Amino acid sequence: MIQILLDRKEPSAKEVRAHQNFEEILAAHRYQQQVNNPWRYWLYATIGCFLLFLV
Amino acid sequence: MPLQLSLQQQSFLHEEEKTQIKRAQQDPRFFAPLYERYHDAIFRYVYRRVDEEEQAYDITSSVFVKALQALHKYEYRGLPFSAWLFRIAKSELYQSFRDQKAKRTVSIDKVVLKQVIEEWTEDYTEHDKARLLLALKDLKEQQLQLVEMRFFEKRSFKEIGEICGLSENNAKVKTFRAVLKLKDIFHQKE
C-alpha cells in the first residue's frame, strides 16, 4: 500500500550536508571491506594454530 | 536565467568526472568530489519515496557505500555516472521496501497535482484531487515510477530512461501509456 504525501517539506541542502559526511561513508566502506575479506579467516586460523603450537 | 552550459563546458566537466572516477577507483578517498556532487540529488530522490527522513538518510548512506564497493566495476559505456548512482539508489530503495524497513511513499506538490487535473478536466475541485490520488494508488509500480519521475519530479525522458534502464524512446512510450492508464482510472472513479 502506497502513501501519498502532499506539499511535504524537504530539508535544505545545508541540513542534508550537516547530517551526513563523506568520512562516515568512507569508514563504513572500509569496515565492509574488512568484513568481506575472506583472508581474515585464514589469518585467525593461522594465529590460533600458532598459539596452540606455543602451548 | 537558468544556467546554460556550452557543449565545450559540458565536455570539460565530463572529462573531469572521468578523471575523478579513475582516481577514486585507485583510492576511495578521491571519491569525495563525486560524493559532494551527487549526494544531495540522491538524497532527494530517496526522500521523496520513503515516509521517514531518517530512513532516507540511512538508504542514501548505503547507496554511497555500495557505490564505493562496486566502483572498480564501473566502466563508462555511455551511461552517465549519475545514472549509475540512481540505479543503485533505486535498488536499495526497493530492497528496503521488501524488508519492510521503509514505506513506499509518493511526495507530490499540490501545484503540480492541480496542473495535472486542469489538463484533464474543465475545473479543479477537491473531489478531482481525491480521485487522482486514488487513481495513483491503483497504478502498477513501474507505471507509478514513470509518472512520478515525469510529472512530479520533471525529469527528462533521457534521464528517466537512464535511471530505469530504458532507451529514451522506450521511456517516452512507456510514460505515455502510464499516463493513459492513469487518466482511464481517474475517469472511472467519477
Give a verbal description of the structure.
The complex is a heterodimer of chains A (55) and B (190). With 55 residues, chain A is mainly α. Chain A has helices at residues 13-19, 22-36, 39-54; one strand spanning 3-6. In chain A, 2% of the residues are buried. The mean pLDDT of chain A is 88. Chain B has 9 helices and 1 strand; from the N terminus they run ααααβααααα. The model of chain B has no long low-confidence stretch (mean pLDDT 90). The longest helix of chain B has 21 residues, at 168-188. Chain B has helices at 7-26, 32-47, 53-70, 81-98, 110-120, 126-138, 141-152, 157-164, 168-188; one strand spanning 105-108. Helix content of chain B is 72%, strand content 2%. By secondary structure, chain B is mainly α. The chains are: A mainly alpha (55), B mainly alpha (190). The interface between A and B is medium-sized, with 24 and 34 residues. Strand 1 of chain A pairs parallel with strand 1 of chain B.
TL;DR?
By secondary structure, chain A is mostly helical. Helices cover 69% and strands 7% of the residues of chain A. The model of chain B has no long low-confidence stretch (mean pLDDT 90).
